Amino acid sequence: MTAAPALDVRVWPDMGAPEDISYAGAWLPPPGVLAGLPRLRVMFSLGAGVDALLRDETLPRNVPLVRVSDADLTQRMSEYVVLQVLWHHRQQRRIDDNQRRKVWDSFATHAAGDLRVGVMGLGVLGSDAAGKLAMMGFAVAGWSRTRKQIAGVQSFAGWDEFDAFLARSDVLVSLLPATAETRGIINYATLRKLARNGPFGAPILINAGRGAQQVEADILRALDDGTLHAATLDVFETEPLPAHSPLWTHPRVVVTPHAAADSDPAAICRYIAGQIARLERCEALQNVVDRQRGY
Ligand code: NDP
Ligand code: OXD
Fold first, then answer.
1. Ligand 2 neighbour 154 (Cβ under 6 A)
2. 123 Cβ below 6 A of ligand 2
3. Do residues 135 and 209 share a domain?
4. What is the four-CA torsion angle of 249, 254, 258, 261, rounded to 10 degrees?
5. Do 173 and 29 fall within a single domain?
6. What is d(CA 226, CA 205) in angstroms, rounded to the nearest whole number?
7. Is 41 marked active-site?
8. Catalytic one of 250, 252, 258, 270
9. Which of 151, 192, 227, 228 lies at a C-alpha separation of 20 to 30 Å from 287?
10. 64 lies in which domain range?
11. Is 258 a catalytic residue?
12. What CATH number should be reported for the domain holding residue 82?
């Protein structure tokens, strides 16, 4: 491993004796594999989200779980969020359709400041995306468990402020982790609470968090009855999105294949090697998952 040539790196399932393993990096390990490593000191998620790892009920309780927080991943996610907000804001689907039909339709557009974007989840990814949207002139707010201070971003915190956050949002972006509390949060009742007096007369949804947060039948219902103007979905209840899902062909849905922010393997290896080096210098690990909160 070029990131740390001194480390003896083994690739599952050829990892030799289980007691040789001190650190494990994993994304979707078969349940029980990590529990079978008696000298494990740290588990590293190979992604930012840890929901898949935490689903393994045998995951060792006494071993810290560290998740990825990487500038390259953050940059990619912000690119995705800014791209999708702009795509809807500048009505790119209409432009593409017009070009295909050779129609010269120079329709009126609105200012970025007229579009109120609400970002659910103001962690590493959400705070960066929200800050970049604010820099572009959008009217940005964010919702998180605890209050934040991000230049140009109005902060809403906790369930008490959830409805007020929704009521001022024309575009709802989810960058929440999948936890017991966020499961199904993007449902019909939530979508009904979004602003309906924005430039498009109905709100827009962008979910790049996790599919477990969305109720796809509710999103389709909301699109079809006018509760929702349009949606961009990168994550789904079932991945890959089954071929029979109406989301694939819905005229007001953009589907991307859980690719909003790819992890660069070299960057992730450097990150893990850096965390191991910290631990071995007796420094605290960073980005340790709170197993109680689930993120
Ligand atoms: P962080 O842990 O840094 O941030 C999570 C944010 O969600 C925090 O602001 C947290 O609030 C907030 N939050 C969690 N639970 C609640 C709740 N019940 N109510 C209100 N706010 C809540 O995570 P990241 O920003 O690094 O990543 C977020 C998620 O993005 C990942 O978990 C993963 O699911 C997804 N992801 C998707 C990718 C893709 O390609 N589609 C790529 C990478 C990640 P607080 O700050 O107050 O704790
Ligand atoms: C992640 C992801 O959590 O790619 O890193 O979804």
1. no
2. no
3. yes
4. 160
5. no
6. 13
7. no
8. 258
9. 151
10. 1-70+263-295
11. yes
12. 3.40.50.720
